[in-house]
Write a structure and sequence with these properties.
With 449 residues, the protein is α/β, with parallel strands linked by helices. 47% of the residues lie in helices and 16% in strands. It contains 17 helices and twelve strands. The chain has helices at residues 9-18, 23-35, 37-42, 51-55, 104-120, 141-155, 174-188, 209-227, 244-255, 278-287, 294-299, 330-338, 354-362, 370-373, 376-389, 396-420, 427-446, and strands spanning 60-69, 75-86, 92-98, 127-132, 164-167, 236-240, 259-265, 268-272, 303-307, 318-321, 343-345, 366-368. The longest helix has 25 residues, at 396-420. The relative contact order is 0.13.
Length: 449
């Protein structure tokens, strides 16, 4: 395992003590701090004025009650969260997640990661994250609308296009964003298009936003493979998940000549050696809101479904975990390495456990951390903000071209920073240091606030 520089250990100790019972946040903070020893050796000024301690402490944490009425006329209570982590580079920016696992520690870890991810894009956006332990699965459209409206009754006090700009995440898509935007508009009596991103095209959304996180992950991997003299052509790929990120990662892998042979959801995974039928997955997940097990009955022979188990048992050249945090364990990483995986990129936020990441790095597998590889979503959200501010609407082609440029720029920043700090090819260290320096420089300029 990596060792934290002794100068940074007291900072980690404070994080662990101050944020007890929040293992995901501990994990995210530890990973960044492990990379910063090289930085404070080269730039002593980053150790001054408790700068690193301030970066590890959210600027604001908001927890609130969300009461709503279900279709049986029963009152339900959920808990809502918004962690506004760092605004040194711009207004807080980060998604809203609706999932039963959501708690303040998970939202805090996501906001911390978001701060560095947003910095890597080079765009003027700070880091934040929000959500609720509400589970949208099995709920009617009316129930989801009532929940979203109640959630926004409290959240609207804390957001704005120059303050905090939420977007979607797990459990929050265009439907949920629409309901929240409608309630925000009613509560504030103004059409503030830039307050939420991930909107529908009919009311200020951006083309390519839905595709952006999955597309961006694959663009990053393409740059990473090119840096090492290869490409996607003929590569066998496994992608976990079958939601928005996974679906559009599959689409772009296929466009670049790769073949996706497996994808999953929380119930299990499918293997289709002929290549996943993406249109069928879209029908099941985006239209019918069904389960991935339905794929085999609709597809026919030549594919099979495995209930439970690990999708990472399927041999591949490129692995893209695109489901949720800590889904890929050390045992999974060992299996992937033994089966000859060449590259792994995190389409989800922190989907690989620390021991899995360490194993990939030791095995010299090309590994792209989420704060770099999945930054395409938030980058395109910032492009949506740009279009809203100028009352403009770009073509899909123009937006995707800009996305590709941003992802290539993130790759170059990570790669060049890793070289500069003596760890060539280490995208984890490169991403952490490059993101940190951009945030740290802004914080130093703004004074102790």
């Amino acid at each position: 395992m990596n060792v934290i520089d002794e100068r940074l250990q007291p900072i980690l100790n404070t994080v662990l003590h101050r944020n007890a019972g929040e293992p995901e946040f501990h994990q995210a903070a530890r990973e960044v701090l492990e990379s910063l020893g090289r930085v404070v050796t080269k730039h002593a000024e980053y150790s001054e004025d408790a700068l690193i301690e301030r970066i590890c402490e959210p600027e604001r944490q908001i927890i609130f009650r969300v009461p709503w009425i279900d279709d049986q006329n029963q009152v339900r209570i959920n808990r809502g969260f918004r962690v506004q982590f760092n605004s040194a580079l711009g207004p807080y920016k980060g998604g809203i997640r609706f999932h039963p696992s959501v708690n303040v520690g998970i939202i805090k870890f996501l906001g911390f990661e978001q701060t560095f991810k947003n910095a890597l894009t080079g765009m003027p956006i700070g880091g934040g994250k929000g959500g609720s332990d509400f589970d949208p699965k099995g709920r009617s459209d009316r129930e989801i609308m009532r929940f979203c409206q109640s959630f926004m009754v409290e959240l609207h006090r804390h957001i704005g296009e120059y303050v905090d700009v939420p977007a979607g995440d797990i459990g929050v898509g265009a439907r949920e964003i629409g309901y929240m935007f409608g309630m925000y508009k009613r509560l504030n009596n103004r059409y503030e298009a830039g307050v939420l991103t991930g909107k529908g095209l009919s009311y200020g959304g951006s083309r390519a936003r839905k595709e952006a996180t999955g597309f961006g992950t694959v663009y990053f991997v393409r740059s990473m493979l090119a840096r090492h003299g290869t490409d996607f052509d003929g590569k066998r790929c496994v992608i976990s998940g079958s939601g928005n990120v996974a679906i559009y990662a599959m689409e772009k892998v296929r466009a670049f000549g790769g073949k996706v042979v497996a994808c999953s959801d929380s119930g299990g995974y499918i293997v289709d050696e002929a290549g996943i039928d993406l249109d069928l997955v879209k029908r099941i997940k985006e239209v019918e809101r069904g389960r991935i097990c339905d794929y085999t009955a609709l597809r026919g022979s030549g594919c099979h479904y495995i209930e439970g188990g690990s999708i990472w048992d399927v041999p591949c050249d490129v692995a893209l975990p695109c489901a949720t945090q800590n889904e890929l364990s050390e045992a999974d990483a060992k299996t992937l390495v033994e089966n000859g995986v060449m590259a792994v990129a995190e389409g989800a936020n922190m989907p690989c456990t620390p021991t899995a990441v360490q194993l990939f790095r030791e095995a010299k597998v090309l590994f792209a951390p989420g704060k770099a590889a999945n930054a395409g979503g938030v980058a395109t959200s910032a492009l949506e903000m740009q279009q809203n501010a100028s009352r403009d609407s770009w073509s899909f082609q123009k937006t995707e071209e800009r996305l590709a440029e941003i992802m290539h720029g993130i790759h170059e920043a990570c790669d060049e920073t890793a070289d500069e700090y003596g760890v060539p090819g280490d995208y984890v260290t490169g991403a952490n240091i490059a993101g940190f320096i951009r945030v740290a420089e802004a914080m130093r300029a703004l004074g102790v606030i």
